[in-house]
Amino acid sequence: MAQGGGGNDNKPAEDPLQPHPVKEQLPGIQYCINSPPPWPEAFVLGFQHYILTLGFSVLIPSLIVPQMGGDDAEKAKVIQNLLFVSGLNTLFQSLFGTRLPVVVTGSYSYVIPTISIVLAKRYASFENPHERFNETMRGIQGALIVASCFQMVMGFVGLWRNTVRFLSPLSVVPCVTFTGLGLYHLGFPMLAKCVEIGLPGLIVVVFISQYLPHLLKTKKPISDRFAVLFSVAIIWLYAQLLTSSTVYNHKPKITQRSCRTDQAGLLSSARWFYFPYPFQWGSPTFNTGEAFAMMAASVVSLFESTGTFFATSRYGSATPVPPSVISRGSVWLGVGGLLNGMFGSITGTCASVENAGLLALTRVGSRRVIQISAGFMIFFSLFGKFGALFASIPLPIIAALYCVFFGYVSSAGLGFLQFCNLNSFRTKFILGSSFFLGLSIPQYFREYYRQVLKSEHNYSGHGWLNDVIVVIFMSHATVASLVALILDCTLSRENDATRKDSGLHWWEKFSLYSSDVRNDEFYALPFCLNKLFPSL
User: Where is the signal peptide (predicted)?
Assistant: First the structure.
């Protein structure tokens, strides 16, 4: 389906005073879900997606492993484990889950409950850092396993499917928009930790992807399609020159860790070959409170992944994802979380927001490209030295890419406004309330959490309940989605006029899998599995 959603040149010119027509599938996508690019191009695009997955795959272990008592060697192992299971989870999701070109990687939503486990009093008695790391890892694994089982149950019994059925285009707008906007703290704030390489990185990627195609006319899109590789290579070389020139030698340690290319400690610590295997640190241990906190994080992950699914379907030039397909995807997210827990990846799973944004930049929404990127994840997780080379890219360079790709996902959410009546005061109230509260409520809980950490809060006792509340209400996507969903369902939704204002008259045909024949083209399971596992 090349040139998905393209227009017809034989149509008469549209009246310039008329609004832009509504598009069920996004036009301008060169390769949609089922139309792969040529193999050489697909491999390069897959490698781009792999580079982008390194952000969270390195950031989360770098944040948590040192607090657990782990050294660089153990951090390298955790990163390799996370990349390995991310590759497997991406393959499973693209084959048996939503079938969308979605990369499944580690989720930032699990950081708070994970840190709570790390700071638990029962691990403070271990004076040996290695023993403390092992015991803490076992506790994290147990909580992740319980949370993943809860996530799978939500998908299997249809609980998440029935929740998603209540969504309308109006309530999807804040869900998808804040899936991207809600990660703003990982954009410019992380870039600014080394502004001398982060800011040039942002300028270079914008120039190469947006301005250079107009200056250099080529038969095939090159600069915009491979902007990630070009910009990362240029700024990484620039960062290496700064490191070699000794300009950081007398800078504070925190600056050196962010700016230097030789501070990650991964290249020297990673093994040449390492095969991840389950429970290598021992049998998991279980704690009820910690499991509840992880379950809250898994719910947040479902909200954010659902927003990413909708954005990915848009940038793959597919129809909106039916609720049954999203539920199927949530089951495989749970399976992925189970693998994360078994392999010791210290975080759960989530559909990657940044990789969904990369689909928009390249205008390639091919499933094959994502499957190739999964192959790169698995390969570089096994051959540690090669993977460590790319994992040592300074995070401010990756943050510069986030500034672009998170914005793309946010704009995908705003695109659903075309199906809503923006002249309705009900629409304005729901949008305004969900957007404002989606910003304001998480900000309050973020400040509260910072105060808790500064006061050296004791995480025993009822600390897990605080974590449950903080994890849910610190998520911009979750809060905005809940506010929009509740208001949309309770404010005269049974009225035909308000249903039309919310876009439900258009949305209903996508609420059931069998209502639109195009769903089989995009979301049907392979190997005739649809007959064994029919979608509702």
Answer: none
Total residues found in the chain within this entry: 536
The Cβ of residue 127 has, within 10 Å, a number of other Cβ atoms equal to 8
Tokens found for residue 403: 């500034």
What is the distance between the alpha carbons of residues 502 and 174, in angstroms, rounded to a whole number? Answer: 13
437/85 Cα distance (integer angstroms): 35
Give CA separation, 253 vs 211, 261, 454, in Å.
37, 13, 21
pLDDT, tens digit (0-9, with 9 covering 90-100), for 41-94: 999 999 999 999 999 999 999 999 999 998 888 999 999 999 999 999 999 999
276 in Cβ contact with 81 (< 8 Å):
yes
Q: Convert the pLDDT of each residue in 250-309 to its tens digit.
A: 888 888 888 888 877 788 888 889 999 999 999 999 999 999 999 999 999 999 999 999
CB 322 within 8 A of CB 190: no
**H helices then E strands: how many in the chain?**
25, 2
Burial (CB count within 10 angstroms: exposed 0-12, middle 13-18, buried 19+), residue 83: buried
What amino acid is encoded at 445 in this protein?
F
Phi then psi for 6, rounded to 5 degrees? -70, 160
The phi and psi torsions of 312 (rounded to 5 degrees) equal -65, -40
Distance CA 248, CA 252 (A): 8
- Could you tell me if 323 and 523 are in contact, meaning their C-beta atoms sit under 8 angstroms apart? no
Q: Half-sphere exposure (CA, 13 Å, Cβ side) for 368?
A: 13
Q: Please, are residues 194 and 255 in contact by the beta-carbon 8 Å criterion?
A: yes
Alpha-carbon distance 487 to 510, whole Å?
22
3-state secondary structure of 371: helix
The dihedral sign for the CA sequence 82, 84, 87, 91: negative
Largest CA distance in the chain: 77
CB 508 within 8 A of CB 194: no
Cα separation, 105 vs 332, in Å, equals 12
- Report which DSSP code applies to 270: S
Query: Does residue 266 contact residue 72 with C-beta atoms inside 8 Å?
Result: yes
Tokens for 22? 């509504």
Q: Radius of gyration of the chain from Cα atoms? A: 23
Q: d(Cα 467, Cα 8) in Å, to the nearest integer? A: 54
Write out the two tokens for 142.
Answer: 């147990």
350 and 105 in contact (C-beta within 8 Å)? yes
The overall pTM is greater than 0.70 = yes
Closest to 168 measured CA to CA, from 443, 499, 514? 499
- Average pLDDT, stretch 160-167? 93
Closest listed residue to residue 305, CA positions, set 320, 277, 327, 290: 327
Give me the torsion for CA of 328, 330, 332, 337, rounded to 10°.
Answer: -170
For residues 251 and 259, the answer to whether their CB atoms sit within 8 Å is yes
Q: Which residue, 295, 316, 372, is CA-closest to 98?
A: 316
CA 381, CA 84: separation in Å to the nearest integer?
5
